[in-house]
């Protein structure tokens, strides 16, 4: 029997979270300020969502637009605050100005997570060298997922990279799950599943009315059916 594919949905509030779970989401990514591509939500929002649903939630640790870490002391404090709120899974990723991973910032934040599981987000799609980034992060506690479109412009351009990286599963730096998101469409799913990629991330696709509208349970259910049918 094939393993159920993972469907992760971006949630901005408890209403989104409830609709996503009802539609069949396996996990949520919690953010705010999508105009800045997703920042850390307020602790009160995280607490409300954790109370509203019983599926895993990953909280974004990002304080400003872009991929620079910024004030790492503040990031560490926010990570600790989120843990105190009840969060146990996270999303993060920081680059230096030259496009290399900011390993010091990542390691400091990860240390504050105390072994919690986390995703390195689409900063990888803006890295100067994806392979070097993966190898630099290999072995960090809790890292189990890369959220990636394969290219900064989205899955259409990044699909060959995603398929090539999936073929390297088991190599150093390639043990983590590939979670595909960023311009992802339903017609991409069969190609990705055929390559062994079984995790999918949607944001705008879960909101047919746009980001000013809440998550649509029906839209999430459509994706659930699609990834299950193709599996």
Automatic annotation (TrEMBL):
Matching Gene3D superfamilies: Copper homeostasis (CutC) domain
SUPFAM superfamilies assigned: CutC-like (SSF110395)
A Pfam family it matches: CutC
PANTHER family membership: COPPER HOMEOSTASIS PROTEIN CUTC, COPPER HOMEOSTASIS PROTEIN CUTC HOMOLOG
Protein family membership: Belongs to the CutC family.
Protein name in UniProt: Copper homeostasis protein cutC homolog
Organism of derivation: Streptomyces fuscus
Lineage, highest ranks first: Bacteria, Bacillati, Actinomycetota, Actinomycetes, Kitasatosporales
């Amino acid at each position: 029997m094939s393993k159920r594919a993972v469907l992760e949905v971006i949630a901005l509030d408890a209403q989104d979270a409830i609709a996503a779970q009802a539609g069949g989401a396996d996990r949520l990514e919690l953010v705010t300020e999508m105009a800045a591509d997703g920042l850390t939500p307020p602790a009160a929002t995280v607490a409300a969502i954790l109370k509203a649903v019983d599926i895993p939630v990953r909280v974004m640790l990002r304080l400003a637009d872009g991929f620079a870490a910024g004030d790492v002391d503040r990031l560490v404090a926010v990570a600790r605050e989120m843990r105190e709120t009840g969060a146990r899974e996270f999303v993060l990723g920081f680059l230096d100005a030259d496009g290399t991973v900011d390993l010091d910032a990542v390691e400091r934040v990860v240390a504050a997570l105390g072994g919690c599981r986390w995703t390195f987000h689409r900063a990888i799609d803006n890295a100067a060298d994806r392979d070097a980034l993966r190898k630099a992060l290999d072995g960090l506690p809790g890292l189990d997922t890369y959220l990636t479109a394969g290219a900064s412009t989205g899955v259409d351009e990044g699909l060959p990279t995603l398929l090539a990286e999936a073929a390297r599963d088991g190599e150093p730096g390639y043990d983590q799950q590939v979670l595909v998101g960023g311009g992802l469409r339903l017609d991409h799913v069969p190609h990705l599943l055929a390559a062994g990629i079984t995790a999918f991330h949607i944001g705008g696709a879960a909101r047919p009315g746009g980001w000013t509208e809440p998550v649509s349970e029906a839209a999430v259910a459509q994706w659930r059916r699609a990834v299950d049918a193709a599996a």
